[in-house]
Specification:
Protein name: Putative ABC exporter domain-containing protein
Number of helices: 22
Distance between the termini: 39 Å
Oligomer: single chain
Number of strands: 0
Organism: Ruminiclostridium herbifermentans
Largest sheet: none
Number of domains: 3
Structural class: mainly alpha
Length: 518
């Protein structure tokens, strides 16, 4: 057991050391810690109004449910693995009993659950307002940690049982989706009863006392809302007791499992390590690495020269499931639903859709093209190969964002002229952002770590926005007034396209050294 605890300790110590492994990494780490820490402290010391109880409870329940469903469904739909390759090699080759290995998995679940909960709870001070004090925030963090502890432990248990009884995890996913389906059915009924009022429907669902009995997610919401209203005896204590009880039962069941999981876990640890290496090298993970691929054949007309890159990416895209292929569109519609439910302005909804589209574009498959040595052998210019390689991902991001923003514009009843202007602005910044991302690869090269790539990405993204801002300021000065939507959109579109062309020209030699890349 001492070796297990030592391994865990070194695991997190080495993570901290890697954050300070170079000058750039140290600067980024210090800036990130200072920035996030200052934002977090400011959220408590700044003057805050108490948020509306129904509003805060509804949005809190929605966030917990959304993150939980995405995480649970992702775990149960594929073999993600439960150990990294380094941990698996150490644990399976050392003189450790099976229960010692299981104890390591159980103990390592705690910090992972807390870190995941911290990511979710970081926004709660802004959402809940003055009702969330520092002591209550700590308690809320522990409650959310218990929730994610249940999710992780149940996945580990289902993963091991699925080795002994193939199909067990699939059946667990069916049961989980059935519960979510029942919840969706209740939502639809309420939606009809409230005369199709989305905001009122969400409030009635998530604030109803029966939702408190919904496994895991309802219990977590029940505990937090009861804490904020100081209903400790009949709200907070029962909800926390249910979460603790499930965690204890899962720990006992997992610790006493008799299944031989070594071979399967070691096999999946190799795939998991590939994802971690990809994340470490590029700062992102190719969506094909985590998505479930279709096994049926797909017909694609292959082109010659640089077009072969496009054809292969199209074939790979057809192998993806619908959820992975249209993930930007789904997230855009989810943000739209959140905006309507909580009465957010269209501008805020558009910013969320745009930020989501740009962030998710960082996981497109074109990032891998720059490290494939055979691309160098394609008889075409490096510039044409560059354009063709990013074309599928660029097109997908544009189409998904345009559809989401168009639907949002129709829901918010925007004038057609303004909607067209917003679409042009979105499209111009998508093109600009992606070419700024390409230039980071061109200038940094494949050997830089993810911290340096992230730092340069932020610098280039911010720098490339400056020309468009300058043009708008100049136009406003010339007109002696703020330009209308069409003039603004035209100026931004023209400026961003010119900037993107310059970035593409500067990145044109990105494939010149691809034959010596890893």
């Amino acid at each position: 057991m001492e070796a297990i605890l030592y391994l865990l300790k070194r695991h997190y110590i080495n993570k901290i050391k890697r954050a300070f492994s170079s000058v750039v990494s140290t600067i980024i780490t210090v800036v990130a810690v200072f920035g996030l820490g200052s934002s977090f402290v400011l959220s408590f010391i700044a003057k805050r109004q108490a948020a509306d109880g129904v509003f805060s409870e509804t949005i809190m329940a929605g966030i917990i449910l959304l993150i939980g469903v995405i995480l649970y469904n992702s775990f149960l739909s594929r073999d993600t693995g439960i150990l990294t390759m380094a941990d698996a090699n150490f644990l399976f080759s050392g003189p450790f009993e099976k229960r010692t290995v299981l104890a390591y998995i159980l103990i390592s679940t705690a910090p992972v659950s807390v870190l995941t909960a911290l990511f979710i709870c970081f926004y709660f001070p802004y959402i809940l307002g003055a009702a969330l004090t520092v002591p209550k925030f700590i308690v809320v963090l522990l409650v959310i940690s218990l929730l994610f502890g249940c999710i992780y432990l149940s996945y580990y248990y289902f993963y091991i049982l699925d080795i002994e009884k193939p199909g067990f995890k699939k059946n667990a996913r069916i049961i989980f989706l059935t519960l979510i389906g029942v919840l969706v059915l209740v939502f639809v009924v309420l939606f009809i009863i409230t005369s199709f009022d989305l905001k009122q429907t969400s409030q009635r669902l998530f604030t109803h006392y029966l939702y408190n009995l919904f496994p895991l997610f309802g219990w977590a919401k029940w505990a937090i809302s009861s804490l904020l209203t100081e209903n400790i005896l009949f709200g907070f204590i029962p909800a926390v007791a249910l979460l603790v009880f499930v965690n204890v039962i899962l720990c006992i069941a997992l610790y006493n499992t008799k299944t031989d999981f070594y071979e399967k876990t070691l096999e999946d640890s190799i795939n998991l390590q590939k994802l971690l290496d990809d994340k470490k090298a590029n700062g992102n993970v190719d969506v094909r690495s985590v998505a479930k691929l279709k096994k049926k054949a797909s017909n694609v007309e292959f082109s010659l020269g640089a077009g072969a890159i496009y054809s292969r990416q199209k074939l790979e895209s057809n192998k993806l499931s619908l959820g992975a292929r249209y993930r930007e569109l789904y997230m855009g519609l989810i943000y739209l639903a959140f905006g309507v439910i909580f009465g957010l302005d269209f501008y805020f909804v558009m910013m969320m859709i745009g930020f989501s589209s740009l962030t998710m574009s960082l996981n497109d498959s074109w990032h891998r093209e720059f490290k494939k040595p055979y691309v160098f052998l394609i008889p075409a210019s490096s510039f044409s190969k560059l354009i063709v390689s990013i074309l599928p991902g660029l097109t997908k991001t544009l189409i998904s964002g345009v559809i989401s923003i168009t639907i949002a514009g129709l829901v918010y009843k925007l004038e057609p002229v303004n909607l067209i202007g917003y679409l042009l602005i979105f499209a111009s910044f998508v093109v600009l952002f992606i070419f700024a991302e390409v230039l980071t690869y061109r200038m940094i090269g494949p050997s830089a770590n993810a911290v340096a790539v992230t730092f340069m990405r932020m610098c280039f993204a911010l720098a490339t926005f400056i020309p468009a801002i300058v043009v708008i300021v100049v136009v406003s000065f010339v007109l002696n007034d703020i330009p209308n939507m069409l003039v603004t959109a035209a100026c931004l579109l023209l400026t961003n396209l010119l900037t993107s062309t310059l970035l593409a020209f500067l990145s044109r030699g990105i494939f010149e050294n691809s034959e010596i890349m890893d």
